[in-house]
Every structure is written in C-alpha cells, then in structure tokens.
C-alpha cells in the first residue's frame, strides 16, 4: 500500500496494529564527478518500493523524503541541505499524524549517512510522546552489511560515497545517469573514525573529488545482485517488526 495512492477511507480501514509504516529518507547532494545528485534518493526510493511490493497488505509506504542533512557536502556545491534542528523536526512532523491516527509500527528507512544522527534524535524525542509505538530506523545498508561486503571487489567493503557500491546500484537502476567517462579510482580518502573516535570532517577534508573507494570497479550486474539482496534483507526485517510485541512497560519478573 502506498499512502499517497490510497483514499482516506482505505487508510482508515488499515489495521493499525498489523501495518508497518515505512518512511524512506534520503538526500540530494553532490556525488563526485560521475553520479547524479539524486543518487541517495534514487537508491532508497527503489529499495523502499520493492520492499512494499513484497508485502503490500501489511506495509504502508510514505513518499520518499528527498531532503536530507547534508551540510558536510556544501563546500563541493550541487547540494541541498536542511538545518539539523529543522530536519529532526521535519522527520517528526511527517510521522506524527499517522502515529496520532493509531499506527503503531514505524520504520525510517534511511539512504544517507548524514541522516543517521538526526534520525535517532527524532525517534528518541518521539518516543516520549508515543511510548506504545514501535519506533525504528536505520540505513538500508546496515541491514545488509554482509551481502554488501561480499560483493565488493575493492578494499572498501562498506558503503561510502559515490563509491563502488553506489555506482553499481545506479548503473543497475538508472544507467543513463552515470558519467562513465569520469569513473576513476577514488582511494586515499580519510575516514571519520579513529580507534572508535568520531572525527568531524566534511567531504572536502576527507576526499579530493567528493567520492570514495573504487567506483571504477562498479558494474550493473553487481548492482542488480546487491539490490535483490538488500530488498530481501529489509523484507525479512519488516516481517520481524510486524511480529515484534508492542511493549509499554517491561513487566517480566
């Protein structure tokens, strides 16, 4: 079920307890010299729609939020950004009315690294108002880490930025948007973690061209296999969330 394609009567008839509400969240920002600015939104939206198509009777999919927290890309230009406080509030306001309407299971399906921290803050603040609801959220890649790592040929085995993974995914989903003449080895980027310590650097400090890893190793076949694996993983998580008990107070002896 897709929220924006349903009538008010159809939404009113949906089972509040046994329906999972999914809000895909992403970004519009620079993705190096070879990928479109909408990369995160294109990938996250496609995954979310495929997950909904697996279980249309138990999932209501909200429209993908394309605006993200992308201040760390601004110095490269070609980026749209929301202030962190505004973004946290925006996430909360989008889902607040469905929660007030009785929907009790929510997944924020994230497709952009900069959204991770505000996503968690938004859920923490919402939880005080909706203690009976199951409020969840994560980047899609965190639910498919092993599948992604096993598919990467380059040294970087996780999702970076305009990397081998994202380039493969766009080659599969929207190949006409990839500038293959500008694919290059983007190794040598600086990480944002040192021995477990977060280092706050923007992409201008961490990369030369606003991209990481080995996009030159990307293939559409790799993207197709990854897309299928990720959708399967998230579909399985969605099933678990529908079976998860709604716990207001832990009363186990």
Describe the structure.
The protein is of the alpha/beta class and 253 residues long. The chain has one domain: Creatininase (Rossmann fold, 3-Layer(aba) Sandwich). It has helices spanning 8-13, 39-54, 84-100, 116-129, 145-151, 164-173, 203-206, 220-243; strands at 20-25, 59-61, 105-110, 134-139, 193-194, 197-198. The strands form 2 sheets. It has a 4-stranded parallel sheet. Strands 5-6 form a two-stranded antiparallel ribbon. Strand 5 and strand 6 form a beta hairpin. Helix 2 crosses helix 8 (220-243), helix 3 crosses helix 4 and helix 6 (164-173) crosses helix 8 (220-243). The longest helix is centred in the C-terminal third of the chain and has 24 residues, at 220-243. The N and C termini lie far apart (39 Å). The model has no long low-confidence stretch (mean pLDDT 97).
Number of distinct helices: 8
Share of residues in strands: 5-15%
The chain-level mean pLDDT equals 97
Query: What's the architecture, going by CATH?
Result: 3-Layer(aba) Sandwich
Q: Name the CATH homologous superfamily.
A: Creatininase
- Indicate the CATH class: Alpha Beta
Shape: globular
Across the major sheet, the strand order is 2-1-3-4
Mind sketching the topology for me?
Elements: H1 8-13, E1 20-25, H2 39-54, E2 59-61, H3 84-100, E3 105-110, H4 116-129, E4 134-139, H5 145-151, H6 164-173, E5 193-194, E6 197-198, H7 203-206, H8 220-243
Parallel strand pairs: 1-2, 1-3, 3-4
Antiparallel strand pairs: 5-6
Helix pairs in contact: 2-6, 2-8, 3-4, 6-8
């Amino acid at each position: 079920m897709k929220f924006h394609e349903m009538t008010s009567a159809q939404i009113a008839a949906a089972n509040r307890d046994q329906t999972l509400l999914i809000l895909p969240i992403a970004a519009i920002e620079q993705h190096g010299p070879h990928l479109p600015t909408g990369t995160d939104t294109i990938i996250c939206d496609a995954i979310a729609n495929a997950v909904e198509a697996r279980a249309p009777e138990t999932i209501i999919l909200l429209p993908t939020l394309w605006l993200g927290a992308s201040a760390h890309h601004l110095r490269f230009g070609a980026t749209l950004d929301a202030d962190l406080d505004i973004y946290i509030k925006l996430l909360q306001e989008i889902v607040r009315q469905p929660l007030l309407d009785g929907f009790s299971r929510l997944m924020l399906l994230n497709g952009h690294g900069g959204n991770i921290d505000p996503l968690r803050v938004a859920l923490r603040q919402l939880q005080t108002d909706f203690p009976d609801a199951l409020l969840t959220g994560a980047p899609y890649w965190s639910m498919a880490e092993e599948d992604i790592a096993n598919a990467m040929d380059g040294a970087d085995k996780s999702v970076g930025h305009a990397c081998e993974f994202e380039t493969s995914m766009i080659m599969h989903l929207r190949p006409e948007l990839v500038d293959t003449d500008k694919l290059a080895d983007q190794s040598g980027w600086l990480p944002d973690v040192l021995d477990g310590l977060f280092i706050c650097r923007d992409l201008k400090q961490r990369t030369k061209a606003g991209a990481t890893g080995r996009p030159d190793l990307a293939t559409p076949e790799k993207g197709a296999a990854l897309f299928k694996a990720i959708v399967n993983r998230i579909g399985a998580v969605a099933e678990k969330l529908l079976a998860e008990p709604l716990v207001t107070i832990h009363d186990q002896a």
